[in-house]
């Protein structure tokens, strides 16, 4: 090998430079999470060879180029190995350092292998349910399921990378051809009826508001109502200050003064209407899915349309598809989410074609259940779902324990009592999975992930297990043991040498 | 060598995605015969899709609470003797296990199991939607030692076993037994339709961060007293505030439900447990609850305020029936902060919405 290249590869300066690059990468990756989200940063900065472009504190820097996590990691391994080879010479006094280096190399290679080979999935079930599959939350598939007989089903699963707008899917196991008319990374599937219902409620509420502040005469009666409901008082006081009133402690008196001043009263009414309207729209826009996701989606869409001055009528809410659930639903495309607490819901509109003609279009989304497509006497169920992998055994959730520290939401004990039934090994045993105490079975690690609990502290008995397939899971353990052994050896070797030397000196 | 290792690592990661075709069992293989309280096997694609629909004549005073995770239908009945509930749940794999069913419910109220002959004796015939079903009663104690009576009727059908359960205090259940038996005669189970499947999406909540005000709740302007800071509400909450004072901290949450969710005693004991205090009975309840004044409805108690303290933590909890719904207000935190905000909290409760 070229001598200068060998010198470069074994240089300590290269180690320092690589560590410096790693520190900067970690810093930039941490800051960039605010704009790009954790998962994108993990993939683009740390699970990549090179980083091109970044956004820091809101500033876009498309010219930014930096070595990615893989480049720096591999560089460090190569540098460490080369230095090891160059400087290696067998002696008992150096054995500790050699072992420590080997341990660090194992850690680095193990981490690289984990990044590339590890697959994370989830298993979600209620007490009493048995499941024999795991699903990946952030990878999806279009699944077509057909009954083969009373016990078996055939599944044709199309992975997410093949789902692109305009693509045609042909498979000999399917009695039809599928054309992807639309495919989106995230979207609300919204009930047309519920959106119209929400739109009517919102319009009526806004109409009432308009009537409440339609003339100067109504300012004082409205202010008197505020005295009965102090919740609105601060809004009134802010608005009164906005028209130049300084003494706003007595809202009714201040309203009387403003009502008598034609120059101010119109402005106050407009300001109050705007503030209360904004409050109503915000409440609709921020509606959560927790209790009635369909109603919440309808309220969000209604608020969006009313804010934009658009109608909320049947004619203005086109059905997403001609057949299936989508015939009663409309689509609200959304930008893909990047934060940790929310997730994207991909959707697709499928044009199903058989015998040279279209059977209609179907909307599929992870927010919808399986839907039947009938072709002749055959029924195929279609769904867009998390990428699913079946296990050769099943797991039943017997009991979910969900305890938090009194007066807080801090988890105290999340625990799942499960029954593993493996027909291959004739195994049928109960075991527990709890926080920090995963189950390792069949090459997978099952970690206690989430539990659901409502405001009334009632546990509905649902448990989510995180399932990790990591062929290199032993690498960190082995690496740490080797490093510890090396350090121990180094310490003891020096200690023994020191004591021996001291004894010899005393004897002399 | 290093390049080879890198390529070996890359190969599985860079595998080209392909369409997968495979065969699965409709139901996950299950070795245990232990019955579950879960609805019909959810791994069955058809069962998942076609959720059964029920037709019935609702007796007077029964309030439909809609489906939940375990039951297709839930009713709440406010009686002068306390609250009773009715729920309807289909279960699979229960046919021919009548004795086990009886014992399953007996264990729920802390009663010893019966042998098959005794269990058979406890069953009486009942008509359920024109079909022959069976009915039995169990009495015992609920969690916390409260007396509880359950009347269960069930019928085995080709699509599973359907369970109809009336539950509550012995007096409340006795007062509703006749209505319950008459109700059973009117129930018709219909096959699921696409419509019923569509309206119940399977997906988990899109976000836990957004404001989860209950759909259909009247639009209100909930503005907090001075010094309270509005936060994104948690699950089942319509509003949440935090109060910081002199290094102390307290949280206020507001939730709205269609029922009183277990009554004053149940809720006060829940709050007591949150503070690490033990449960109390009706006598003990009087010591930690005061009335707030205001309208009663549906035979339920009027607005109440619970005041609980354990060492340096204090909790104020209010239950306010208002316009056909129950409003739950809770302030919990460091005692000095809750002490200072007591009056503001009471005013907030009285004046909202």
TrEMBL record, chain A:
<feature type="domain" description="ResB-like">
    <location>
        <begin position="389"/>
        <end position="451"/>
    </location>
</feature>
<keyword id="KW-1133">Transmembrane helix</keyword>
<feature type="transmembrane region" description="Helical">
    <location>
        <begin position="95"/>
        <end position="113"/>
    </location>
</feature>
<keyword id="KW-0201">Cytochrome c-type biogenesis</keyword>
<dbReference type="InterPro" id="IPR007816">
    <property type="entry name" value="ResB-like_domain"/>
</dbReference>
<dbReference type="GO" id="GO:0016020">
    <property type="term" value="C:membrane"/>
</dbReference>
<dbReference type="GO" id="GO:0017004">
    <property type="term" value="P:cytochrome complex assembly"/>
</dbReference>
<feature type="transmembrane region" description="Helical">
    <location>
        <begin position="473"/>
        <end position="492"/>
    </location>
</feature>
<dbReference type="InterPro" id="IPR023494">
    <property type="entry name" value="Cyt_c_bgen_Ccs1/CcsB/ResB"/>
</dbReference>
<keyword id="KW-0472">Membrane</keyword>
<keyword id="KW-0812">Transmembrane</keyword>
<dbReference type="Pfam" id="PF05140">
    <property type="entry name" value="ResB"/>
</dbReference>
<protein>
    <recommendedName>
        <fullName>ResB-like domain-containing protein</fullName>
    </recommendedName>
</protein>
<feature type="transmembrane region" description="Helical">
    <location>
        <begin position="63"/>
        <end position="83"/>
    </location>
</feature>
TrEMBL record, chain B:
<feature type="region of interest" description="Disordered">
    <location>
        <begin position="192"/>
        <end position="219"/>
    </location>
</feature>
<protein>
    <submittedName>
        <fullName>Uncharacterized protein</fullName>
    </submittedName>
</protein>
């Amino acid at each position: 090998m070229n001598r200068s290249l060998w010198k470069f590869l074994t240089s300590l300066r290269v180690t320092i430079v690589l560590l410096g690059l790693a520190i900067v990468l970690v810093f930039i990756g941490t800051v960039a999470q605010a704009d790009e989200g954790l998962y994108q940063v993990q993939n683009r900065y740390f699970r990549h060879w090179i980083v091109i472009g970044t956004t820091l504190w809101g500033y876009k820097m498309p010219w930014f180029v930096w070595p990615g996590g893989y480049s720096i990691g591999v560089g460090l391994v190569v540098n460490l190995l080369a230095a090891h080879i160059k400087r290696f010479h067998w002696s008992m006094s150096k054995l500790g350092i050699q072992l420590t280096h080997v341990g660090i190399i194992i850690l680095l290679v193990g981490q690289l292998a984990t990044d590339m080979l590890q697959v994370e999935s989830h298993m979600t079930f209620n007490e009493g349910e048995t499941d024999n599959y795991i699903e990946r939350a952030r990878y999806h598939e279009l699944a077509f399921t057909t009954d083969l007989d009373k016990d078996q089903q055939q599944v044709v699963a199309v992975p997410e990378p093949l789902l692109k707008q305009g693509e045609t899917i042909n498979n000999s196991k399917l009695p039809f051809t599928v054309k992807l008319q639309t495919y989106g990374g995230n979207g609300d599937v919204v009930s047309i009826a519920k959106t119209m219902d929400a739109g009517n409620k919102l319009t009526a509420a806004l109409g009432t508001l308009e009537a409440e502040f339609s003339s100067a005469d109504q300012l004082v009666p409205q202010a008197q109502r505020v005295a009965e409901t102090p919740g609105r008082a601060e809004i009134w006081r802010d608005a009164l200050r906005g028209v130049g009133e300084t003494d706003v402690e007595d809202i009714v008196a201040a309203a009387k003064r403003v009502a008598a001043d034609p120059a101010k009263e119109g402005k106050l009414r407009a300001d109050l209407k705007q503030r209360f309207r904004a409050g109503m729209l915000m409440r609709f826009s921020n509606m959560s899915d927790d209790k009635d996701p369909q109603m919440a989606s309808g309220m969000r869409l209604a608020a969006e349309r009313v804010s934009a001055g658009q109608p909320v009528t049947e004619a203005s809410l086109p059905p997403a598809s001609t057949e299936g659930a989508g015939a009663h639903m409309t689509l609200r495309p959304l930008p893909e989410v990047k934060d940790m607490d929310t997730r994207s819901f991909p959707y697709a509109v499928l044009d199903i074609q058989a015998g040279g003609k279209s059977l209609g279009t179907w909307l599929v989304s992870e927010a919808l259940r399986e839907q039947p497509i009938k072709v002749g006497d055959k029924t195929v169920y279609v769904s867009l779902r998390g990428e699913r992998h079946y296990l050769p055994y099943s797991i039943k959730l017997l009991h979910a324990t969900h305890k938090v520290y009194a007066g807080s939401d801090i988890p105290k004990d999340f625990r799942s009592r499960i029954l593993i039934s493996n027909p291959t090994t004739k195994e049928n045993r109960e075991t527990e999975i709890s926080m920090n105490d995963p189950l390792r079975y069949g090459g997978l690690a099952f970690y206690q992930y989430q539990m659901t609990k409502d405001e009334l502290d009632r546990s509905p008995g649902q448990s989510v297990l995180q399932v990790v397939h990591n062929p290199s899971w032993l690498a960190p353990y082995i690496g740490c043991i080797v490093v510890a052994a090396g350090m121990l050896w180094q310490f003891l070797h020096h200690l023994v040498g020191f004591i021996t030397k001291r004894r010899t000196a005393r004897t002399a | 060598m290093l390049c080879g290792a890198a390529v070996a690592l890359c190969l599985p990661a860079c595998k080209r995605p392909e369409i997968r075709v495979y065969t699965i069992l409709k139901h996950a293989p299950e070795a245990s015969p232990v019955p579950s309280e879960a609805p019909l096997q959810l791994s069955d694609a058809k069962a998942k899709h076609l959720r059964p629909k029920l037709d019935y004549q609702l007796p007077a005073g029964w309030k439909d609470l809609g489906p939940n995770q375990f039951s297709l239908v839930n009713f709440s009945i406010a009686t002068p003797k306390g609250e009773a509930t009715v729920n309807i749940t289909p279960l699979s794999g229960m046919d021919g296990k009548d004795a086990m069913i009886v014992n399953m419910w007996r264990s729920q109220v802390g009663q010893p199991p019966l042998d098959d002959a005794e269990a058979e004796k406890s069953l009486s015939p009942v008509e359920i939607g024109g079909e022959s079903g069976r009915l039995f009663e169990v009495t015992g104690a609920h969690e916390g030692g409260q007396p509880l009576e359950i009347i269960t009727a069930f019928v085995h059908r080709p699509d599973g076993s359907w369970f109809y359960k009336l539950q509550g205090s012995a007096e409340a259940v006795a007062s509703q037994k006749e209505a319950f038996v008459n109700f059973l005669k009117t129930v018709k189970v219909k096959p699921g339709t696409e419509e019923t499947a569509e309206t119940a999406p399977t997906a988990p909540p899109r976000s836990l961060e957004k404001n989860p005000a209950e759909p259909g709740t009247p639009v209100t302007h909930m503005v907090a007293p001075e010094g309270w800071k509005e936060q994104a509400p948690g699950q089942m909450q319509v509003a949440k505030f935090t109060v910081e004072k002199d290094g102390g901290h307290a949280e206020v949450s507001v939730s709205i439900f269609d029922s009183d969710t277990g009554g004053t005693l149940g809720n006060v004991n829940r709050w007591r447990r949150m503070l690490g205090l033990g449960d109390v009975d009706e006598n003990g309840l009087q010591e930690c609850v005061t009335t707030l004044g205001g309208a009663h409805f549906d035979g339920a108690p009027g607005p109440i305020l619970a005041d609980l303290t354990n060492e340096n933590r204090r909790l104020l909890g209010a239950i306010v029936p208002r316009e056909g719904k129950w409003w739950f207000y809770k302030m919990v935190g460091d005692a000095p902060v809750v002490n200072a905000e007591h009056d503001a909290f009471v005013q907030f409760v009285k004046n909202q919405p």
